[in-house]
Amino acid sequence: MTRKMRRTIWSWLALSPLIVLILFPFAVMFITAVKPAEEALQSTWWPSTFQWSNFIKMWGNTNFGPALFNSVYVAVASTLLAMVVSVPAAYGLSRYRFKGRGAVQQFLLVSQMLSPIVLVIGLFRLVAWLGLLDSVESVIFVYAAFAVAFSVWMLQSYFSTIPADLEEAAWIEGASPWQALIRVFLPLALPAMTVTAIFSFINAWNEFVIALTMLRSQESYTLPIQIFSLVAGRYTIEWELVMAATLVATVPVAVLFAWLQRYLIRGLALGAVK
Amino acid sequence: MKRSALTNPYILILPGVLLAGFIVIWPLVQITEIAVSEVNRFGQLRGFAGLENFVAVVTDPAFLGACWRTFIWTVAIVVGSIAVSMPVALILNEDFHGRGIARIIMMLPWAVSLTMTAIIWRWALNGESGMLNSALKALGVIDTNIQWLAQSSTAFPMQIMIGILVTMPFTTTIFLGGLSSIPDDLNEAAQLEGASPWQVFREITLPLMRPFLNIAVVMNTIYVFNSFPIIWATTQGGPANSTDILVTHLYKVGFRFGKLGDAAALSLMMFAALLVLTLIYVRLAMREDKS
After folding, report:
1. pLDDT tens sequence across B212-248
2. Which of B105, B177, B288 lies nearest to residue A19, judging by beta carbons?
3. pLDDT per residue over B174-200, tens digit each?
4. Which domain holds residue A224?
5. Of chain B residues 232-271, which have a CB less than 8 A from chain A?
């Protein structure tokens, strides 16, 4: 047996308890989602038949469609808003040394660390004052603002890796700053912007506390709140439908995340160094 | 160079700073104002109250319990996730067959929202028909069902376990970043000198990982201290507030009991605690920056 083969066996063996623990909730979710209703409450592992119609029933019974629409709307709109203000800010921070630059960076770092929960009382009043309570727009506004710190931090660390010489060369060639930006800088920055936007999207997609506080009627629920409302304070819970809903709400985003996590890691690493 | 909005950094950063500042500073001012005011149930301020709200917060019997549990919750998850993540990172840093798949599996808990994870576990831990009980019974570990979430003695450890599980991917990621910055020849040289793997880890890897360990501790402390969905979606702090931590306690005081003054005072106290943690983080990050 080669060294690598031996190491393979030991590595998988050492990781196996953790792998079981990680995959266990996924197994629970998948299996329950396809169980017939009368079997969901029985403590058997395997369903007698795979009842795919649960997904259709779930769609009709759980207000899934409107909540899905709200979630997509909130995540897309808040991401767009965050990017529109974050890209110029990150560009300014990475390209220019100016008075107050350090203060802005520290402010962003601190506000990135602040979770919405300690501010939720004030945010609630702010939203009430703006007359946006129970509207998804309030959530868009708050998510975008909280995404700014993270996005600027992440974008800035990527932008700093794009040499400023390229734009300066374009200026010397007679391009205006706008032309240099659009023709030279943006194409190079596009991958970083895409990745940052996707993470902002995922954060908005998953957020719980703000949505729970601001959204009070079912028409405005996003997916996490809608699914939470199916289990919270109910005497009978149709678990097979809840798990079907969880599965549909979770898997697309989880795949996206698994695919992109290495970019996040690189961004975090760059952010820590720069 | 031509003058344009693009060459003025202040114009570039203004919208972002305004938006982020508005959402942090305005609420903070509001909270401070509410915290020192007398407030009725409908959120109307009825005059200056001094420190009354703060006194009400700390004399609430539920507050001390929540403080204590926040301490246990934070320390257990931060320490636990480091204890799990360090070996995982060391394993994933070595070359073996299927490493790519192993990495993706280890990152999975990070990919699912905390709310969804907590709802799935709430079902898996169900006392009558939960699949954890049926799995443990099938394996012969237990023979009567355990009501996992019905008492805090089992609910809280389970919530901590879930917390460790979802914190592990991020922590492992930081450690992998640290491990990749250690040059390979350092380990090889030590091995040639006859050092055992344990000695290599203690004398070379661990000291070089120190900065990454620091960052993992501070960032995880902040995240875990703030973590709301795991407890809220499994037990909502129950039964009888026995699994409440400060964030769930705060939410109940503010939105369930409608004591906005108390909730604002508690928010300010937690904000101060977070600010201290964040300043520690900023100092650590800046120190990294210099070296």
Report:
1. 888 889 889 988 999 999 999 999 988 889 999 999 9
2. B105
3. 898 888 888 878 878 888 888 888 888
4. 62-273
5. 232-233, 236, 247, 250-251, 254-255, 260, 263-264, 267, 270-271
Check residue B6 and report its DSSP letter.
G
What residues are paired with B39 via a beta bridge?
B45
In A, which residues are within 8 Å of B88 by CB distance? Answer: 15, 18
- Is B4 touching A (CB cutoff 8 A)? yes
Q: Using CB atoms, pick whichever of B9, B31, B226 lies closest to residue A121.
A: B31
Q: Which domains does chain B have, with CATH numbers?
A: 51-290 (1.10.3720.10)
Residue of chain B nearest A20, judged by CA positions: B105
Query: Does one domain contain both A178 and A240?
Result: yes
Q: Do B120 and A177 touch (CB under 8 A)?
A: no
Residues of chain A with pLDDT under 70: 1, 43, 262, 264-274
Interface A:B, Cβ pairs < 8 A: 292
Interface mutation target, options A113, A152, A157, A231, chain B, most CBs of B under 10 Å: A113
Q: Which helix (H) or strand (E) holds A254?
A: helix A239-273
What ipTM was assigned to the predicted interfaces of this complex?
Answer: 0.86
> Do B234 and B121 touch, CB atoms closer than 8 A?
yes
d(CA A93, CA A108): 11
The rounded distance, in Å, linking the Cα atoms of B58 and B62 is 9
From A55, A70, A89, give the residue that closes a domain.
A55
Q: How far apart are CA A178 and CA A261, in angstroms?
A: 32
Across the range B33-51, mean pLDDT stands at: 83
On whether both A36 and A74 belong to a single domain, the answer is no
Q: How far apart are CA B222 and CA A52, in angstroms?
A: 41
Is B107 within 8 Å of chain A by CB? yes
Query: Whole-model pTM above 0.80?
Result: yes
State CA B34 to chain mean position distance.
Answer: 27
Contact A227 B16 (CB under 8 A): no
